[in-house]
Amino acid sequence: xxxxxxxxxxxxxxxxxxxxxxxxxxxxxxxxxxxxxxxxxxxxxxxxxxxxxxxxxxxxxxxxxxxxxxxxxxxxxxxxxxxxxxxxxxxxxxxxxxxxxxxxxxxxxxxxxxxxxxxxxxxxxxxxxxxxxxxxxxxxxxxxxxxxxxxxxxxxxxxxxxxxxxxxxxxxxxxxxxxxxxxxxxxxxxxxxxxxxxxxxxxxxxxxxxxxxxxxxxxxxxxxxxxxxxxxxxxxxxxxxxxxxxxxxxxxxxxxxxxxxxxxxxxxxxxxxxx
Amino acid sequence: xxxxxxxxxxxxxxxxxxxxxxxxxxxxxxxxxxxxxxxxxxxxxxxxxxxxxxxxxxxxxxxxxxxxxxxxxxxxxxxxxxxxxxxxxxxxxxxxxxxxxxxxxxxxxxxxxxxxxxxxxxxxxxxxxxxxxxxxxxxxxxxxxxxxxxxxxxxxxxxxxxxxxxxxxxxxxxxxxxxxxxxxxxxxxxxxxxxxxxxxxxxxxxxxxxxxxxxxxxxxxxxxxxxxxxxxxxxxxxxxxxxxxxxxxxxxxxxxxxxxxxxxxxxxxxxxxxxxxxxxxxxxxxxxxxxxxxxxxxxxxx
Lengths: 275, 302
Ligand SMILES: Nc1ncnc2c1ncn2[C@@H]1O[C@H](COP(=O)(O)OP(=O)(O)OP(=O)(O)O)[C@@H](O)[C@H]1O
Ligand SMILES: [Mg+2]
What we know:
The complex is a heterodimer of chains A (275) and B (302).
Chain A: H1 4-26, H2 37-42, H3 55-67, H4 80-111, H5 113-126, H6 135-142, H7 145-170, H8 174-182, H9 187-225, H10 230-239, H11 243-271
Helix pairs in contact in A: 3-11, 4-5, 4-7, 4-9, 4-10, 6-7, 7-9, 9-10, 9-11, 10-11
Chain B: E1 6-15, E2 24-34, E3 39-43, H1 50-58, E4 65-70, E5 73-74, E6 82-85, H2 97-108, H3 114-127, H4 143-156, E7 161-165, H5 173-190, E8 193-197, H6 201-207, E9 210-214, E10 222-227, H7 236-239, H8 243-259, E11 273-275, H9 277-283, E12 299-300
Parallel strand pairs in B: 3-8, 3-9, 6-7, 7-8, 10-11
Antiparallel strand pairs in B: 1-2, 1-4, 4-5, 9-10, 11-12
Helix pairs in contact in B: 2-3, 2-4, 3-4, 8-9
The site of magnesium ion has 2 residues of chain B, from helix 1.
């Protein structure tokens, strides 16, 4: 009798290998065309365009790239590690700035119905705006593509944190607030020793959503502003028609996104409590 | 100037109704007093406003009319002088048992050292028999254990008045009995003043010096103040052998079942009437409960 866990791992691996197998077989270069390879290359890869690189090629590239992630050979040839580093730096900077604003403001909105009603219209209008729509304005005002990218991350990650913080703070059980009141805790002590721990799981959920969105947005933002970062890397490899690198970087984007989520998930588990 | 420890004068709570209708008066003309070291229970049907009264005593709720005076000073807001044990325990679920008690102790004595806060908290947890679960979270405790943590937290801050809102409501009869005995043990050697809401007549008789009976709402009043004239220390197993116990019990049940809908006649300022069913029973050994009118058995509280 195997546990669900080990059986699910086996099933996952099976699915993985079946998919990779289909992908590999479907994209084998036809044997007859082998002789034409030279010709094809000269013709600019007419056949290549129709074929996605097989996983074996991607894996080969991955081993090479991951073996040396931080090389820097000029503006258009940097290691995957450097590119991911740039993206992570932007995402984390924008995200942390957003948290610094969103959590205190969310606290105020959650605690005060007056502030909630006053700020709600702004939130409702600003929240549905695609973060990329801010880009031209940001570029015009800030005049720096690096900072503009960070601003876009900031603006897209602020809303989930703001709303979840307000929601979590407003939802703190009245009894717990009454415990603070009967113990004569001041407003600040109450905020830190009762409201914050009580709302922390909801706040962390907001942070998790935010960092997920931020990681989605950074790729698009970097495609627009160019220069460095994983989004730029993808676009650059596409312009080079290096699909193997494109697929490899897509996979890396997924991996890093997963790690970011796992990190916040671990943080969320620290503040989780059971009623 | 009164010398009562706590005095409730003409307390009244009204809620505004949606336009047009008359305001809802939950209770009115509520008058009673509590002496230092006294254990007072209040009984009444659901919704008559018991929780509202206890929250007003705690300073968490404010009355529409009337005042609560403690040590001759008006109660205007929550204070560490009045500890509260809430009906649903209200432990902070992210803190361990020990930290929940330390939370209260630290608030009470902010200048104490960490060690002193911890040892003081441990002492009270030990008193309620919880020294083995100091590091568990409330969710890992049984209902009875949670209630004991809550009681330990309230006792540990050594309030002048302890307020208990139906503290045993959610517990099974066996656990309830055990905690009641623990509570009475702690109370008897600490001379803590306690005001407690209960639904349970037997519990009230076991614990209280005085039982306040509330009539049904809306417009509820505290109709009677019943003296529990049974010697202490009381043990559940012993008092139930006493005939006067049954007499008192019948009197209370009769009120709740048959008389709680009556509006007491006469001067409302005179409420509640003070009654002592046991002494009247001993003087006049007739089994059925009687409402006594002769002046020698009626002491006005005022
Ligand atoms: N915000 C409010 N608006 C209108 N009426 C209210 C409000 N809060 C409480 N009430 C009313 O006040 C009355 C008293 O409530 P309270 O909680 O004090 O009752 P209780 O005696 O403690 O009942 P229980 O024994 O069920 O706990 C109830 O009838 C309730 O309907
Ligand atoms: Mg109640």
